[in-house]
Amino acid sequence: MPRSRAIEAFQQGTYGQSGEKLDFSYYDCAKLDYTTPVLAHRLFVTPVGQSGGGFTNKTLDITNMKSAGIIPQGQHHTVRFLKVMYSPAAVKATAALVAFYRAMASIVVEVVLSNKDQIGQWTLQELMGAATLFPVTPTTPGDNIGQIQPRYHGIFPLNDPIILAAQTTFEVRVTCFTAGLTTLDGDYLRVALAGTLRRLS
User: Fold this and answer.
1) What are phi and psi of 31, to 5 degrees?
2) Strand ranges of the sheet holding 107-113, from the earlier edge strand across to the other edge
3) Is 88 within a domain?
4) Which of 38, 125, 135, 167 is surrounded by the most beta carbons within 10 Å?
């Protein structure tokens, strides 16, 4: 191959008329509030730079949605995994662990498309892979009591992907069905829709 053609070949691929395919996640956060209480949260409906969902201004660490609850024109997102992450607002006391376990068992996450029933519905416990949640206090101080170890990972693969085509209106609903877990106030629950994003370059 002549040198000029080889150089030209190496310059191709970043931009193209046929678009591009990316390994990508759209994400958003719910700020837990068991005192007010706010037990129902709508994710992906407030874009970056706007106020909503308990945030005065959603920055890029909170969400990367650029449009309110809609996939932009020129994009097509195939969601193959749900990723769930939890971040506490402050250092917790021991009793907060029980509240966290209770929240995992009683928070329901739903993916909802406009004009359709929910197309996915799971407890947070299932999404995070926490089959057993059983804290104990040793009867004798210092005892090391072995416990069942769940595969705690926070990445939930979908057997059938969720298709979010251009201009699709959607949201993720996070509903807390146990009230009074005030030790969790201010904590962040992040949901990411991970998969393959196809978009025009």
Assistant:
1) -100, 115
2) 40-43, 170-176, 107-113, 118-123
3) yes
4) 125
pLDDT tens per residue, the chain (201 residues)?
A: 576 776 666 666 666 667 889 999 999 999 999 999 999 999 999 999 999 888 999 999 999 999 999 999 999 999 999 999 999 999 999 889 999 999 999 999 999 998 888 899 999 999 999 888 888 888 888 787 777 777 888 999 999 999 999 999 999 999 999 999 999 999 999 999 999 999 986
The first and second tokens of residue 150, run together, are: 């769940």
The verdict on residue 83 lying in a domain is yes
The CATH number of residue 85's host domain is 2.60.120
pTM: 0.88
Domain count, the chain: 1
Q: Which domain holds residue 176?
A: 20-138+147-199
